[in-house]
Amino acid sequence: MTALSLAFTKDLFASVMLTGIYSLLSAGFFVLMDAVDVAFTEAAVGAGISTILMLTTLTMTGRFENRKLHHPKIALSVVIVTGIMLVMGTVDMPAFGSPSAPAQTHVAPYYIQQSAQDIDIPNIVTSVLASYRGFDTFGEVVVVFTAVIGVLALLEFARVERADSEKPVPMLQHKILRIVSKILIPPIMLFALYVQFHGEYSPGGGFQAGVIFASSIILYAMLFGIEQTRKAVSVPVVKVLSALGVLIYGSVGIASMLNGGTYLNYSVLAENDVTGQHIGIIVIELGVGITVATAMILIFLTFARRIGKTEEETA
Amino acid sequence: MNFLEQYNYWIVILLMMSGFYIVIAHGNLVKKLMGLTIFQTSVFILYISISKVIGGTAPILDDQYEVYTNPLPHVLILTAIVVGVATTALGLALAVRIKEAYGTVEEDVIQEKDLQQEGSTE
Amino acid sequence: MIQHLPILQVIIPLLAAPICFILREAKLVRWFVLLANIMAFVVSIMLLQQVNVHGTLVYTLGGWEAPIGIEYRIDELNAYLLILVTSISTVTLMAAGSSLNKEMKESKQTYFYIAYMLCLTGLLGILATGDAFNVFVFLEISSLASYTMIAMGNDRRSLWASYQYLIMGTIGATFILIGIGLMYMMTGTLNMHDLAERLVEVEQTKTVFTAFAFFLVGVCLKLALFPLHLWLPNAYAYAPSIATVFLAATATKVAIYILLRFIFSVYGFEFSFSHLPLTEILVSLGLVGIIAASIVAIYQTNVKRLFAYSSVSQIGYMILGLGIGNKTGLTATLLHLFNHALMKSAIFLALAGVVYRIGNVNIKNFAGLGRQMPWTMAAIVIGGLSLIGVPLTVGFVSKWYLVLALLENGWWPIAVLVLVGSLLAIAYIWRIVEVAYFKAPLQNNQSHKEAPPAILIPAWIFVIANFYFGIDTSFTAGLSERTAELLFGVVK
Hints:
The complex is a heterotrimer.
Chain A: H1 2-8, H2 12-32, H3 36-61, H4 72-90, H5 102-105, H6 108-118, H7 124-132, H8 134-155, H9 175-198, H10 206-224, H11 226-232, H12 235-258, H13 273-314
Chain B: H1 2-5, H2 7-25, H3 29-51, H4 71-102, H5 107-121
Helix pairs in contact in B: 2-3, 3-4
Chain C: H1 5-23, H2 26-54, E1 57-60, E2 71-74, H3 76-103, H4 106-128, H5 132-151, H6 157-187, H7 192-202, H8 206-223, H9 232-238, H10 241-266, H11 268-275, H12 278-298, H13 303-324, H14 327-358, H15 369-372, H16 374-388, H17 394-408, H18 412-438, H19 453-471, H20 474-491
Antiparallel strand pairs in C: 1-2
Helix pairs in contact in C: 1-2, 1-4, 2-3, 2-4, 3-4, 3-10, 3-14, 3-19, 4-5, 4-10, 5-6, 5-10, 6-7, 6-8, 6-9, 8-10, 9-10, 9-13, 10-11, 10-13, 10-14, 12-13, 12-18, 13-14, 13-17, 13-18, 14-16, 14-17, 14-19, 14-20, 16-18, 16-19, 17-18, 17-19
């Protein structure tokens, strides 16, 4: 399949595209497997953001790779041994899709049967994500925040100060594109907001909304140039927001502690347990959305700004 | 019969291993990261396969349906996807810096240059 | 607030990180980070007290009982390690200010401190949690933060080291993810306590075996067990000095904790040691690691790298103790976790002092330093003596237990090899001593002063701790013995 052909292409540009296609195909697979939320995220993140970042990197690192493989035989044997281990592991696995598999009978039924009572939100994935396993999600937001810190620490500081002469922006001349996208960007943002606040009923939530919102900014940046975007979106504000998202999430936890519950116990936030859960979930999803959106924007802008510099120096 | 029931997992394993192979065998830093992405995405497919219940529907409560697919692995994988993209972003940032510092993103060239540097500081 | 201690342990550094990002000013951030660290340290001490009084503490996050929700579960083992990690990170931070001022621009320091805090958060999160998937999430927080810290070194090789670590670390994490996924598949739960109960039913299946194998390999990549250690020497050698101190003293220790937790508490001693040839694998890898890494260490010219290889060999001792599979061996491992952290913090902090004055740690520049920087060099030498295992230092105590454990099983040839390892340690420590004390300083290196007190004092805190815990073993050995009993007790 795609993955296999990827192993053999030397053209990195094609590889990126194949990786993107692979992500998209797996997103399709996720839909087949009823994992709509996951599919949504994989399509936005795997096929969208990662691909853009990889392409941006390629413009800096060069398109073609060296043909030489490193100890292909050793690598192949390591891989084969690992593969055989895994295949061996499948022998005793419960049959695919079986409703009586341990994974389906232990904890999962609780979520499916009780979440209506406990939390009263149709989308069980959101309930589990935001409440039952809310702390994992908090951890995940922190991971995103860590990545931002990492990327900024690595790429924000230029070796040479930026020259004033603006590089020609690739797509500035396409008038139609600009107009179309000007029309498109607000709806994308609106859609992001819809996904943000409608996550309880349909697939979606903070992450997906964050990614979509970020992609609208990225689209803007691609069409109107990085510097223009940096003027439109104040970077220091974005930075503060990315930290604020984490803090919002964290302070919901503190609030529930102060109200006498354990950390991230939303039930204590209101008189009624279910209302408390709703408040908690909406607020933390907001925190997630803010951090993810700002994180993606920051990462992209930092990468894209670096291109200009590298090109100037190599030229 | 049992043989056929597992075929889905076998395909996943094949995918995983091709990603893993790219990571180990390729010398280009960006390519390695792509391999890593493939490897991770395949693990996600494994998790999602665990969650599937035949005859089940997406885990969004509705009166029409009785059987739902297990939502827990979905949640785990949502987390894992985000972790994955965070790692990729950081890895790419490193690749960019390496390109600037070494002038290349090929593993063997970098190692050569390192050896030279160590030789010259002796 | 007492009942919230387990979560506060993790939340304090976690929330401190984004606040730092808003504060921005490196000077401000520095004090704030130190404050948060001291708070975390106090919390960890209170936690140990609580555990001593009440036994295992369970804290349900979000108010959902495990296995529905995630829980924190603190027993003696993680209370002990929480103290280790927070204390070391606090003392290390005291030295961070001056060392960082020398090694990186002020504008970058804020990012470094944030990464440091996030790394600490990740490590504490791994230690405190009782949920297998939560381990993965916090592992990634600490990993991403440590890649960042390593890449902030001055040498361009730090970038390459960080990249290699990123690849190896992510492969490790993905292996762990596969392991956790397979465990979930067979049991339907992610909670460690629950896993332990439910794994018993399916422990004969190959899937569980595979899950265990993948998990082990993944963790061993993280803890740099020989031969999966390739990322470690460069990472430690080229990272900023403070990052080296922190990572060397804590990160691998936490990886060993994960190993202990899953071998003993989740899978259980029975499964780990009787269904698998775990003893043979761990003992032989540990031994090869001790000997091979020590030999490589002897030939290093970069002193930080020399001690990085020595870390790989010391990890071998810990794995060896674990592999022996009796209570004394486990005690030795736990003791060595603590003791090795003390030794390496002392040594790497002193090396941070050397970097501060000289700018690098090439061994030829050490010529004559014994006279020019007597206190700094003394700290390195005492740390070295402790590595060798000279009586009165902590190194002696843990080696003593290790040899006892080996003799308990009647494995005297291995005991002899352990002593050979110590001889090799003498060899690499001696190289430094020889250069530093018996060679005349180089022409251009005539006038080096002592390292600044801000670095020297924390380094000597560790040195004194090396002696203190070497002479009065009641705290560490007592706690390790009790923890070892606890871990073996879980089995039955």
